[in-house]
Design brief:
alpha/beta, D-Maltodextrin-Binding Protein, domain 2, 2 domains, 5-stranded mixed beta sheet, 4-stranded mixed beta sheet, 18 helices
Length: 426
């Protein structure tokens, strides 16, 4: 009996020592609360956890990540709630303005410029991506520069119906009876969320009529939203619905839902931001794709919205510095080094290259050779087509929710929805 008790005592002592050591090691870790923006229904989203987050944890055992994954409106609502409560996560995904306006204007984010300067990284990124943002400082380190209006072309649908890529609005309009006769839509958009029409199409249209500097001129009082240029832009949207180029039912389509219909040939075109390219590529975890690589080469292309009558700039697109990673301004100083280590990793060469290979984003880091990465990784055709598409954008114009106050662009979003419903004409 004594022998048994002795063995149990020794075992208990060892277990206690092991647990004590584990607890001590855990107490040495820096815990970071992180709010991540991710659509778990998208291709390669599950792979991101292993390729990005698990890899960081393996490389930095001294840092413990407590991550919260959200997407679209739930994400933005949570950010606003955290901001109102003064409980922002230590590290969070953010926009340079627009949806993250509160974070910037109320100076809730840490200025990253001194950190970049300290580590000699300021000139390693695209200069546009390190310029002061909405709050007058660098609140988030962007993934890259984002064009918000990409027009996907289903070549197979066009070919089967004797049509070609449109060069003008009139060309688009002429497709309506041809395609509708077969139950095919001309353009699909997912406009249930108000920002989609405004950011992914109307911003481009506004730039075509207002020019690349319309926002500066509005701010200076040299242009006004009551002027002809803006009314002409609203008229284009009204005509898109009236002419049947975009169906009014798109206002009931949840964001991202129309991509599968486009790939299935239910529409000739699909309009979204450039980030949507990733949705059509192969999910490395399942091997599934809306367009297999061979079909990407032959059946789908990328274009800018065709010419509009009366536009003053041509082949333009609405563009903004992209989303990226930020640090809460009121972070515990003892956590700052760990938070900066995480942000540098998330915007470093490894992760930005990984994003490029999945089609999620084109890098802001200047050291990444896109052509070389494409060749070495035998990337899918859409990656190369996307790179070529950027080269065809001749003028970059402002994105409305990237340059205007929320009180202004939310009214524009509402007006666009009412035009879509046929309640307003301008």
């Amino acid at each position: 009996m004594k022998k048994v008790l002795t063995v149990l005592f020794v075992a208990l002592t060892i277990c206690t020592m092991v647990f004590a050591q584990a607890a001590a090691e855990s107490s040495k870790k820096v815990q970071l609360r992180v709010l991540n923006y991710i659509d778990m229904s998208e291709p390669n989203s599950a792979n991101e956890i292993a390729q990005v987050w698990d890899k960081f944890t393996a490389e930095h055992p001294e840092i413990e990540i407590i991550r919260e994954d959200l997407f679209n409106e739930p994400f933005h609502q949570k950010v606003e709630a955290y901001a109102a409560q003064g409980q922002l996560p230590d590290v969070l995904y953010a926009w340079p303005s627009g949806r993250s306006s509160t974070l910037h204007t109320e100076h809730l984010l840490y200025d990253l410029t001194p950190l970049l300067q300290k580590d000699g990284l300021l000139d390693k990124y695209n200069p546009l991506c390190t310029a002061p943002q909405l709050g007058g400082y660098l609140g988030e380190l962007p993934n890259g520069v984002t064009a918000t209006s990409m027009m996907f072309v289903n070549n197979k649908v066009l070919k089967e119906n004797g049509l070609s890529v449109p060069k003008t609005y009139a060309d688009l309009k002429a497709m309506v009876p041809v395609l509708n006769k077969k139950g095919i839509e001309v353009i699909t958009m997912d406009c249930q969320d108000g920002w989609v029409m405004q950011s992914c199409l109307f911003s481009l249209i506004t730039g075509r009529f207002g020019g690349a500097d319309w926002a500066e001129k509005v701010a200076a009082g040299q242009m006004d939203f009551e002027d002809k240029w803006f009314k002409d832009a609203l008229t284009v949207v009204d005509n898109l619905y009236k002419d049947g180029i975009i169906n009014r039912n798109t206002l009931s389509i949840a964001y991202g839902s129309g991509r599968a219909d486009f790939a299935a040939g239910k529409s000739a075109f699909y309009i979204d931001g450039d980030w949507a390219c990733a949705s059509f590529q192969t999910d490395s975890s399942t091997g599934e794709a809306l367009f297999k690589p061979a079909a990407q080469q032959t059946d789908v292309d990328l274009m800018n919205f065709p010419a509009l009558e009366g536009e003053i700039v041509h082949e333009s697109n609405s563009a903004v510095v992209g989303t990226g990673w930020a640090i809460a301004k009121d972070i515990d100083p003892a956590k700052l080094d760990a938070a900066w280590t995480l942000v540098k990793y998330l915007e470093g060469e490894y992760v930005q290259t990984w994003r490029l290979t999945t089609g999620a984003a084109f890098p802001s880091l200047l050291s990444i050779d896109v052509d070389k990465v494409c060749k070495e990784n035998n990337l899918e055709p859409l990656v190369a087509k996307r790179a070529d598409w950027y080269n065809r954008i001749q003028v970059a114009t402002p994105v409305i929710d990237g340059v205007l106050d929320p009180a202004v662009y939310e009214v524009i979003n509402q007006v666009l929805a009412e035009i879509g419903l046929g309640k307003k004409t301008e």
